[in-house]
Specification:
Structural class: mainly alpha
Strand order of the largest sheet: 1-3-2
Oligomer: single chain
Order of helices and strands: HEHHEEHH
Number of domains: 1
Number of strands: 3
Shape: elongated
Number of helices: 5
């Protein structure tokens, strides 16, 4: 694997790691604070921009595929984010600018299904074993995660505003 392919796979690996870490936290109640809720989405957006920048122009035929993957990834990210929010419970936290959040097995299953769609795409995409052929798909995957995290962060921020602290 050449250095360019390795450099483009690194953001994808980080995104997958972040998603899995986030997914397993879904099963525990945790306190989410503002503005901390925006850290993950910001990191993933930066990784998305980085990956798109590296991928653009490698093969001009793939640029169109990359744009399609970004659009599909963003759409699936919106569906994923909304489904996660819908299946998450919120409660007042003990401190200001925070909310207690608890996911469920359903939210964990949603994250796993979202990543399974990406794995399926690898097998359906021509040249799926070639890392360079995967670059447009990787852009779509990272876009999926970015959009999902943005929607989730926005919902968490809204809930922080709606749930007054139990103790000030």
């Amino acid at each position: 694997m050449d250095q360019h392919a390795l450099a483009t796979l690194l953001p994808l690996a980080v995104a997958v790691l972040v998603v899995f870490r986030f997914a397993f936290r879904e099963l525990r109640e945790r306190t989410v604070t503002s503005p901390g809720v925006w850290i993950r989405p910001a990191i993933i957006v930066v990784l998305t921009v980085y990956l798109v920048t590296l991928t653009a122009g490698i093969d001009s035929r793939d640029d169109g595929i990359m744009l399609i993957c970004l659009g599909v990834g963003a759409l699936l990210g919106a569906v994923t984010g909304l489904a996660i929010v819908r299946n998450t419970t919120f409660a007042p936290a003990e401190k200001k600018n925070a909310v207690r959040v608890r996911g469920s097995r359903v939210t964990l299953a949603i994250w796993i299904a979202a990543l399974a769609v990406r794995l399926l795409a690898r097998f359906l995409f021509p040249g799926g074993g070639d890392p360079r052929a995967q670059l447009p798909l990787n852009c779509g995957t990272v876009a999926l995660v970015a959009v999902a995290f943005i929607i989730i962060a926005a919902a968490f921020q809204r809930e922080i505003g709606r749930h007054a602290p139990a103790v000030t």
